[in-house]
Amino acid sequence: MASKIDVNTKLTYAEKILCELLGVGVSDLNAIYEMEEAHPGTIDRALEIIDVLDGEKPNFGVFVMAVKDQALEEVRNIITMEDAESFQDMMLDDNYVAWGPIADYGDYKGADIEANRQRQELFAEYVRGLITREAFVKRYAKLFANANAQVGE
Fold first, then answer.
1. What are residue 100's phi and psi, to 5 degrees?
2. What is the reported pTM?
3. What's the pLDDT tens digit per position in 94-122?
């Protein structure tokens, strides 16, 4: 028997089911949509992470990890290896719709710790979709040049 439910109603039901499965609200689900829009491939990366979790219930934090991974791949070729490692090591707050600020800067072995934290803050802005890749690249280059100038003094 063919379903008499229209597509919009099906999508509404699907969102309700998805919210229940992920333990999130609709506004959090919208945040996940925005993550995917800002960094295409985020949802696929989250599904990969969920597969690795092997039986653990997925949650919003998985999508925060996934969007950070996806954003890092988008800029890996223009940042230093040390910054790439520090960006990977930093932890973003995964407090649902309020996600994104840096919860833990992680470990950084370079001499310019404060400058690295500024670069991490810039990366967090990029991950959240607050700035474009082009704006990130421009501001990153400036922060990196300023740090090198200060180290050289």
1. 120, -40
2. 0.89
3. 989 999 999 999 988 888 899 999 999 99
